[in-house]
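Q: I'm a student working through a structural biology exercise. My instructor gave each of us a protein and asked us to get a predicted structure, then write a short paragraph describing it. Mine is DUF3025 family protein. I'm not confident about reading structure output yet, so if you can add a plain explanation after the tokens, that would really help. Here is the sequence I was given:
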Amino acid sequence: MKNGGNTGFLKDMKQIWDPQFLSRSPMFEPLYAIASSFMKHTTWPHLQDYQQLLHTTEKAISNQNGQPIQFVPQGQKPLQFSEKYEPRIFLTGEVQTRTHNWHDLFNSLVWLAFPKAKAIINARHYAAFRLRNGTEASENNRPKAQDAITLFDESGVVVAYSDENLANLLKDFQWKTLFWEQRSAIPSGMKLFLFGHSLYEKALHPYTGMTGKGLLVKVDKLFFDKPVTEQVIELDGKIAAILSDESKLTAPQALSPVPLLGMPGWSIENESEKYYDNSDYFRPGRLNNSSQRA
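A: Happy to help. First, here is the predicted structure for DUF3025 family protein. I'll explain a few features afterward.
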């Protein structure tokens, strides 16, 4: 029996508001300070609540075009180039946002947590669209660099590291050695930060197989002793610098797959060594791995 008739119902179930979503997993840590006020809401926050968060930041959040970011209702199907999602953000600062929608909620929160990086991503998309004259026909011929930017925006995870050995293990897909044999070294030498808003949506219901696209970012040893808010601010600047360099992140292959539930503390199951013997999840490395590192 096909269950296609239940698709709409299941989709609606995914959008049920949970005021305790930040406490579901340590994966939400980068958003704690930004979204803690949402834990007071018994129903879905309104768009003005998203807007209010913009006013709680120390500095006004703007795009690369100098326009202040605003969260606005989703418009009708765009008829002109300037009305399309990314061009509209660049030209007006307006981020079209659906309410009662986890995907868009997390996109808004990532704008607040990583404003510099999100602004660079938007600017690169706008430049790419302009280069292709904004034609629909060109959408299937996007440059690989734009595909990489999109992949990071949706599914990116920042791998902050000071320990070169741990970084090499991750790049070389040595998952069991990294996450099990070297797990005691991780707290002082490596930390994962979700960036992609699609990943945050998946983190509401984490599952074995959940994988992020990793951007390795070098930090000093003192980084791991800083408060999370300071860590996020520092990473935001570093990510923005990487994304501003067109010689980096030139193709999706520049991002390293990271099996997120292998991270110690991110799954009860990974407290057992056997968990890392699942080769369907902890897959061996690919040939000519060219994962991005900065």
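A: Here are two points you could use in your paragraph. The longest helix spans residues 115-131. The two ends are 50 Å apart (CA to CA). It's a good idea to check both against the output above yourself.
Q: Great, thank you!
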